[in-house]
Amino acid sequence: MPDNLLDVQGLETTFKTSEGVVHAVNGVSFSLKEGETLGVVGESGCGKSVTMLSVLGLIPSPPGKVNAGSASFFGNDLLKMSKDEIRAIRGAQIGMIFQDPMTSLNPVLTVGRQLREPLMLHLGMTTKQADERAAQLLEMVGIPKAKERLSDFPHQFSGGMRQRVMIAMALSCSPQLLIADEPTTALDVTIQAQITDLVKRLRSELGMAIIWITHDLGVVAGLAQRVIVMYGGFIIEEAAIGELFANPSHPYTIGLIGSLPRVDHGGTQRLTSVEGVPPLLLEKPTHCPFAPRCKWVMEKCWKENPVLETVAPEHRVACWVDVKKERQS
Amino acid sequence: MAENNVLVRVDNLVKHFPITKGLLQKQVGAVRAVDGISFEVKRGETLGLVGESGCGKSTTGRAILQLYRPTSGNVHFDGEDLTQLKGEDLRMKRRKMQMIFQDPYASLNPRMTVGEIIREPLLVHNVATQAEADERVKQLLEVVKLNPAFSTRYPHEFSGGQRQRVGIARALALQPSFIVCDEPISALDVSIQAQVVNLLEDLQNQFNLTYLFIAHDLSMVRHISDRVAVMYLGVMVELADRNELYTNPLHPYAHALLSAVPVPDPKVETTRKRTILVGDVPSPANPSSGCRFRTRCPIAQSICAESRPEFREVKPGHFVACHLVS
């Protein structure tokens, strides 16, 4: 058994819509080591959330369908498990946090009741034990007067506090893996800093692996050890965090990094925008998904879809263009 | 500063929203969304207005345009006090001041074609005949880099970035001199944000526009603005030239806000020192006495609870509202 905690191979997910079949994820493979933090970056509709939902067996079916692939977690394929088997893993060995804490919490149940649920379900605690543990968990995520707040409802918490509750819930059964889907996107920047700070502290205390899905390269820069960049349902680049920012090698990644203004140094130079719009994915592309927007596009890009090739240690890119040469010219 | 350099002058602007209770809707309190702010917008500049949600930045933008009538205070636009204008006089002024909204899905009528949407201001203000308006719509679509043939399409046929371009074309239709951009890029994807910001900059140069650019993305505000103002809970805490504010923030809130913004560079990110604020923004219905920020301020002292700090110029062009800044 290799030391990979999670090993996803050839994942393909489609959705049936009134306009046709949307190819949301088109053969995605990646792995995650124990205790590692992986950032998944891409724009809306690039398949980053659908990839993780597929792995967790949370794709609503119909209209969604996982057509191919495997997701081995501790050697067991999550995609082949029955509903009951995967339910025993979700919330226990794999915790999840979603973007909008208001819609992920049940508005008519107290926070205490919702925190108790996974503890009683997965760990078989009694109500009293679970209550105690719930208070500890709230304290752990920095909610003052934790015991009293157990009887409060979600609407009595602010956005940042609700996200803390979500984190407490996700970590309640000490998972080996935490999947966070845009957990700070709905929050203000000072609150975002509080939450990322909290996650970093909990990571060093509890040692879980994290998959952090975001569109914000800044958040990833401070948090992840390795990053995968997705576009049009494909992974187009994968690298260690320092390597990705020092040597971005896919034209899309280069464009994405260039389109970000920096708060720490002023510049009035024009932002390098990526022209065009993301693909609709109504048919599985036979060419490079980024070809319509790529400024270095060649004939080959329209004929064959590039696969991930190693260009440097721990750095894989799916692109036909000799990006280094093009950037110099 | 010569008066005619200033396009918009805001004096002690206040906007309170009443909180009512009971059958008779008796007023029991007020949300002090904007509570006495003063600043100027110079001709041809971009003034960035930043702050967290609920700090009153959008209310400020709307109160300037008289979309909300201010509770008190004055707004001088091109020398005329908008708060004193009513009816037709105010309507004529609106030609010169327009707004671009945050949500390109909600701010376009789904039952109108893009051509009708852009044409509407021209017809409402009676400045063009049907034929002239048609011609102008084509021009405007070209200006915002959309295909003029798209004028017969409906908003749902466009992507978010394209819809925002339609909103920009509509704002430009009456050749305004001042545009309030209320979070115009927040709803867009990163690579599309840069497209829209570049377009806004081009249009500013082309038509000599003045922008009030409201946003919570501090990196983008640094990029687009000439001067930047920071708001917290209905008051302005700091205003300075862009580079001055970002390299030398004086107010503890501005300092913490800037340090909280993640930088897309792992080398910088791992070595940067953060000031992480404790707690949440208090409710604007019940703000603290004295300085609004004192409940979260890492350096607050007793004087901060006693009196509200004055918004004063501590260096030429650098305004700050804090007792502890000398």
Q: In terms of structural class, how would the helical and strand content of chain B be classed?
A: alpha/beta
**What is the CATH superfamily classification of the domain at 3-96 and 176-245 in chain B?**
P-loop containing nucleotide triphosphate hydrolases
Q: Summarize the largest interface: chains and residue counts.
A: A-B, 46 and 46 residues
Could you report the average pLDDT of chain A, rounded to the nearest whole number? 88
What is the C-level CATH assignment of the domain at 3-96 and 176-245 in chain B? Alpha Beta
The helix/strand series of chain B, from N terminus to C terminus, equals EEEHEEHEHHHEHEHEEHHHHEE
Terminus-to-terminus distance of chain A: 46 Å
Radius of gyration of chain B: 21 Å
Q: CATH topology of the domain at 3-96 and 176-245 in chain B, anyone?
A: Rossmann fold
SS-derived structural category of chain A? alpha/beta
Mean pLDDT of chain B: 90
Poorly predicted ranges of chain A (pLDDT <50, ≥5 residues)? none
